Amino acid sequence: MTDTHQIQQDLNYVRQAVSRLDQPRRSRAGIYWIWAIYVLIAYPLKDFAPRAAGAFSSIGFFVCFASSAYVGYRYKKSEGVKPVRDRSGLFWWGGTALIVLCLIAMPETMPALRATTYPLLSQFLGQLAVIMVGIFYFLGGVHYDRNFLWLGPILCACGLIVGLVPHYGWTALGIVFALGLIGPTLFAPRPPAELPQIDAA
Amino acid sequence: MARTTDNLNHAASGLDQLDALLQHRARLGTMVLLSTNAGINFSTLRALLNETDGNLGAQLRKLEEAEYIAVKKEFQDRKPVSWYSLTTIGRRALKAHLAALETVVRSANV
C-alpha cells in the first residue's frame, strides 16, 4: 500500500523534527548560576545569622524563581521558539509549589511540631526541605538534566547528616549544593549552535 | 478474509478524511511543531525541518492562505524576524488530520 508507506515516511520525518526541537542548543548555565548564588548565601546564613535566614530564604527564593523562569524563557526565545506553559514548567513550578506548601502546612498539622522551640523547628524543616529538594532534583534528573541524577541523592544524604555536623554544617551543604549546580556546567561540552541534519528518508 | 476487507475499507475511509493541505510533510511538520509552542521563527523552522528557504517559504504561504497559521514580524537586534503560530482553524484541522492518520495507520498495522 504505497499511500500508507508514504505516510509512515512522513511521520518519521515529523518525529525527527520534533525530537530535534527538544535538543537544547544553548547552555542553561545562567539558571544554575542564579540558584548556586542563592544557596551559597541562604544556607550559610543558617549558621551565621539564623534569624535572618528565614526572611532571606523566602524573599530570595521567589526572586530567584522568577529570575530563572525569565532566563529560561529568554533562552528558548533566543533559540527561535516561544514556549507555552510546557511540561518542564509544570514540573518545576508545580513541584516547587508543593514542597513550599508542605513545609508551610507541616507545623500546623503536626501538634508535636507546634510545641517545639523555634531552633528545633527550623532545623527540622530545613533538613526536611533539603531531603524533599533532593528527591525533586533526582526526578528532574530522570526527566530533564542527567547531572541531577547524582545531585539529588547527594542532597538527600546531606539533608540527613547536616544535623549531625556540630559546626558550619549548613555552610558546607550550601557549598556542596552550589558546586553540584555549577560544576557540570563548567566542564560540559557546549551544545551545538546548529541543528544536526535530518535523515531525509 | 472479511476482516482484511474491513481493514482496507477502514484505511480507505481514513485516507479520504486526510487534509490535502497537510499531506505535504513540510507542512505537516510545521503544524506539529507549532502545535506545542506559542511560536517558532522562520530560521528555526527551516533548521528543524531541514528545508530550503524557498521551499519552506512556499509551504508556509500555503498554510497562511488557508489561515492554518499566522505570521507576526518582529525586529530582533534590528533584524526582521518572522514568528509563526498556529491558529484555531489550524489546530482543529491538525487534530482532524491526525485522527484520520491514526485510522489509516491502525488499519494498515492490524
Strand content of chain B: 15-25%
Number of domains of chain A: 1
The radius of gyration over CA of chain A amounts to 21 Å
- Based on DSSP secondary structure assignment, what is the total number of beta strands of chain A? 1
> What's the tally of helices of chain B?
5
**Quick one: biggest sheet of chain B?**
3 strands, antiparallel
Q: What ranges of chain A have pLDDT less than 50 throughout 5 or more consecutive residues?
A: none
Topology as H/E string of chain A?
HHHEHHHHH
Sheet/helix structural class of chain A: mainly alpha
CATH topology of chain B: Arc Repressor Mutant, subunit A
Uncertain ranges of chain B: none
Helicity level of chain B: 55-70%
- Kindly state the number of beta strands of chain B: 3
Q: Which protein chains make the most extensive interface, counting residues with beta carbons within 8 Å of the other chain's beta carbons?
A: A-B, 26 and 27 residues
**Main pleated-sheet profile of chain A:** none
Quaternary state, please?
heterodimer
CATH class type of chain B: Mainly Alpha
Dominant shape of chain A: elongated
Instruction: Kindly report how far apart the N and C termini of chain B lie.
Output: 13 Å
Please state the second-level CATH architecture of chain B.
Orthogonal Bundle
If you had to describe this structure to a student in words, what would you say it looks like?
- The complex is a heterodimer of chains A (201) and B (110).
- With 201 residues, chain A is mainly α.
- Chain A has one domain.
- Chain A has 8 helices and 1 strand, in the order αααβααααα.
- Chain A is elongated and about 75 Å long.
- Chain B has a 3-stranded antiparallel β-sheet with strand order 1-3-2.
- In chain B, β2 and β3 form a beta hairpin.
- The longest helix of chain B has 22 residues.
- The chains are: A mainly alpha (201), B alpha+beta (110).
- At the A-B interface, α1 and β1 of A face α2, β1, α3 and α5 of B.
